[in-house]
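Bug report (template v2)

What were you trying to do?
Predict the complex of my protein with HDE.

What happened?
Run completed; filing so the output is reviewed.

Input:
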Amino acid sequence: MEKKRSFTKGEQMNKHLVDNSDQKLTTNDGSPIFDNNNTLKAGERGPSLQQDHIYFDKLMHFDRERIPERVVHARGSGAHGTFEMKEDISKYTCAQFLQKGKKTDVFVRFSTVAGFKGSTDLARDVRGFSVKFYTEDGNYDLVGNNIPVFFIQDAMNFPDLIHAVKPEPNNEIPQAASAHDTFWDFISLMPESAHMAMWAMSDRAIPRSLRMMEGFGIHTFKLLDKSGKSTFVKFHWKPKLGVHSVAWNEAQKLSGFNSDYHRQDLWENIEKGNFPQWDLGIQLIPEEDELKYSFDILDATKFIPEEVIPVQIVGTMTLNRNPENFFAETEQVAFDPGRLVPGIDVSNDPLLQGRIFSYMDTQNYRLGGPNFHELPINKSSNQKHNNQKDGFSRMDILKGEVSYFPNSKASGCPYQAMLNGTEGYQSHKEVVDGAKVRQRSDSFADHFSQARLFYNSQSQPEKDHIVNAFSFELSKVSDSKIRERQVAILNQIDADLATKVGANLSITPSKELDEMTLKFARQNHPNYPLDKVKTEVDKSEALSMKVKKNEGTIQTRKVAFLVEEGVSKKSVEDMKKALEKEGAEAVLIGKKVGPLTFLEGGTVTIAHTYLTDPSVLYDAVFTPNGKSIELLKRNPDYFEFIHDAYKHCKVLAFAKDAESLLQKSFVEKDNGVILEKDSSDYSSVFINMMKQHRVWEREAARKVPS
Ligand code: HDE
């Protein structure tokens, strides 16, 4: 029987859209409302009446508008899109949506982990990267993060990890931040978290944009071919715009100036048609190689270096449509790693196994019962057919008298696939044989080798940022024992790292792990520490975010043009044209909104000012020629703007007349300060430097903290 999708997801959802334009105001039951301003009273000045069903209808709904926020990943932003499979991997999987040429609708939700729903986008935190594929065989959810490893190895520790990182229970401080005692207390007692802590303290945890993050399925999953043969797989999302971060000082300022920075960036770029794209990559591990590596592929605190198993790019995802309604879509979307389709199965990773229960359970609670999969955003694009019925807020109307199986009264329908000679979901027929134990495998006992590999693979500025991040976080810890314990862990990873962090905390790193750390580690591995492991590689290029020479793009980057009355139109237009050719955007920033007159005559409307748009909202800065320069000289906001950009290692370009402004600033000439007088084609020099993302050397040379 040929399987056909009756709707694309978009068409299916459109059936639920409500458009209020040209419509009469009604109650929830459709009764027209005569007056929406006044409650029903006994006389103009009299008491309100018990029979005001219109007021009750309105307030009863309002009183129930909030649902529980997600216990983790509460703060999120979503978008619709399409996934297109470009390569043939039918040898490994029979998953329909992974067949070459298939296009599948997706909904993606990005999130931070620790903060509440209204918290800042710019927290130092892991980012969630969840993708719901509406496949012809039902929904497949790839619920991943922007970091390829996790803090813990077994699901049993998850509530403890989250309780430790969330605001402390007595005073609910701090919000969306890991820089506090309970988090580092937990981490310093759990050496298995050392590797992930390195990633969380790296610039990966402060992305420039959701569009510029990698995504990882983290766990090892299984692909299954038609015959049931299994191949282990790791999933990767690689952003076409590259992987980029902001500076920590910038992140802190962004949290104040625009705590919706990532959400707005995603929304605006989709509206502008700058559709973000990611390539889907896979690393395949033949079943027989399961035990071949220095790490256990079932251990979620480990990744597989790309030098050991290359990432094969197999498809591309494009996000091209914003949700119509945040609550109905982004809030109500229910992800679950247990939503699997034929051709994909889970491995025995104990973290993944534990997730299979938790997501379904939490959705039942959060979305008020077992019918959440009937909400438009969660509904599979193939119609579900089964005998499940009733429950709160049931929307499907099941026809007929039969809701059981087997039956004869409905000719056995809905029938099991096998009865019709076709295949439904098949689990991998793995042979399992073992005693029931609560125990951790010793193959999970190496906690520092990959943390070291990660550190060794970072560029110098990235290493410096990791030192700064640990120093910042641990300085905020009040208990000196916790600080010492964590520095002792860092010393197991890299002596230089521990010494530098220790120096900022007045701690001489201990050579040995703290007694308490050892005590907890020995609960899982009685002979801990076990022999040191030799990793397959000492360095992995893919772990660094450094832009390679002659690579990088400035597409969708925002460049601030600092202008005043009398700015040269030609100077503005020439640079704007050069930037737009490369896909970047020029934004004019003035002293006030409204018209501004060019040197050559004519006006332009200024929509952004120093009041609303600080430097942290932009990727680079340009000061054009014109009479405007004299006015800028007397404008302290101008200098604050370029100083901040300079401090955050951004590229600054100055047209000829504007160079005189440099004398009044602390900006010193370096590779990222581009002057018109130095090059006949200074816009190209500006663009090429911007492609490098930041001038990180500036930090070392100028001692500007970023
Ligand atoms: Fe989650 N996680 N998680 N998690 N997780 C949730 O489900 C959980 C883990 C991740 O955009 C919750 O719907 C357990 C790893 C993302 O809606 C909850 C364990 C990874 C999202 C839950 C983990 C993730 C969640 C809370 C340890 C990366 C946001 C609300 C076994 C691979 C999904 C919800 C969205 C959300 C449980 C560990 C990613 C409570 C028990 C590892 C991206 O079910």
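What did the reviewer find?
The longest strand covers residues 76-85. The pocket of HDE is lined by residues 70-73, 76, 109, 111, 128, 130, 143-145, 150, 155, 158, 218, 300, 335, 351, 354-355, 358-359, 362-363 (CB under 6 Å).
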